[in-house]
Automatic annotation (TrEMBL):
This is Dihydroxyacetone kinase-like protein. It comes from Rhizobium viscosum (Arthrobacter viscosus). The keyword GTP-binding does not apply. It holds the Pfam family Dak2. InterPro entries: DhaK_L_YcgS, DhaL_dom, DhaL_dom_sf, Dihydroxyacetone_Kinase. GO terms for molecular function: transferase activity.
C-alpha cells in the first residue's frame, strides 16, 4: 500500500499552514487554562513534519503515519506531543496489521482508544478526545466531509462547558469551565482543514 505522495504532501502542508495561522489563537486558549504554549508546541511539531515531507510521503502509508507520529512526539513536546504522536503511530500500526484489511474508520477508532489509554482520559474530560470521538463517529456513519468538519468545530466549542479532568487545565477545577480546550481546538482546526483539502 503506497501513500499517494502528492496527496500526503498536500495534507502535511495544509496542516502546517492551518496551525501556523492559528498558533496565536491556540496559545491564547492555553493561556486561559494552561501555560500558554499549545500553539507554539503544535507549530514546532508541524514544522518538523513539513521539513521531512518529501521522504515521509515516499513511504507506504502505514510507515508514513508512524514516522509522522514519531516526529510529532519528539517535536510537539508537552502533554499534546505523546497524544498526537500516539494517534498517528497507532493509525500506522493498525493499517499495517497483518492478515486483516483494516478500513480507515476502524483504524482511527483503535488509534483514538490508544490515545485515551495513554492520557488515562475519557469522553467529557475536556481534551482533544472530545473532538476525536465525534469525528470518528461521523466518519463511521459516512457523513460528508463538510459535515465532519462542522462536527469537529462544534465538538471543540462544546468543551467550553466541560470541567477539565486531565492535564494542566484540571488544576483549575471549576475555573476551567467557560473556556474552550486548546487541544480540542487544534484537533478541530486540523480536522476541518483536512476535510476541506480532501473535498477539493
Ligand atoms: P502542556 O499542557 O504540557 O503545556 P499543550 O499545551 O501542548 O501541553 O497541550 C495541552 C492539551 O493537551 C490540552 O488542551 C488537552 O487537550 C490535551 N491533554 C492534556 N493532558 C491530556 C490527557 N491526559 N489526556 C488527553 N488529552 C490531554
Ligand atoms: Mg500548554
Ligand atoms: Mg507546556
Amino acid at each position: 500500500m503506497l501513500a499517494e505522495p502528492v496527496l500526503l504532501m498536500g495534507l502535511i502542508e495544509t496542516c502546517r499552514a492551518t496551525i501556523a495561522a492559528n498558533s496565536e489563537h491556540l496559545c491564547a486558549l492555553d493561556r486561559a487554562i494552561g501555560d500558554g504554549d499549545h500553539g507554539t508546541n503544535m507549530r514546532r511539531g508541524c514544522e518538523a513534519v513539513s521539513a521531512e515531507d518529501a521522504s515521509v510521503s515516499a513511504l507506504p502509508l502505514p510507515d508514513a503515519l508512524e514516522k509522522i507520529g514519531l516526529t510529532l512526539v519528539m517535536n510537539i513536546g508537552g502533554a499534546a506531543g505523546p497524544l498526537y504522536g500516539t494517534l498517528l503511530m497507532e493509525m500506522g500500526r493498525e493499517l499495517r496489521a497483518p492478515g486483516e484489511k483494516r478500513d480507515f474508520p476502524s483504524a482511527l477508532k483503535q488509534a483514538i482508544n490508544a490515545v485515551a489509554r495513554r492520557g488515562r482520559s475519557h469522553v467529557g474530560d475536556k481534551t482533544l478526545l472530545d473532538v476525536l470521538y465525534p469525528v470518528q463517529d461521523a466518519l463511521a456513519h459516512r457523513l460528508p466531509l463538510t459535515d465532519i468538519a462542522r462536527q469537529a468545530e462544534l465538538a471543540a466549542e462544546l468543551t467550553a462547558a466541560m470541567r477539565a479532568m486531565r492535564g494542566r487545565a484540571s488544576y483549575l477545577g471549576d475555573r476551567s469551565i467557560g473556556h474552550v480546550d486548546p487541544g480540542a481546538s487544534s484537533c478541530a482546526l486540523l480536522t476541518a482543514a483536512i476535510c476541506r483539502y480532501l473535498e477539493e
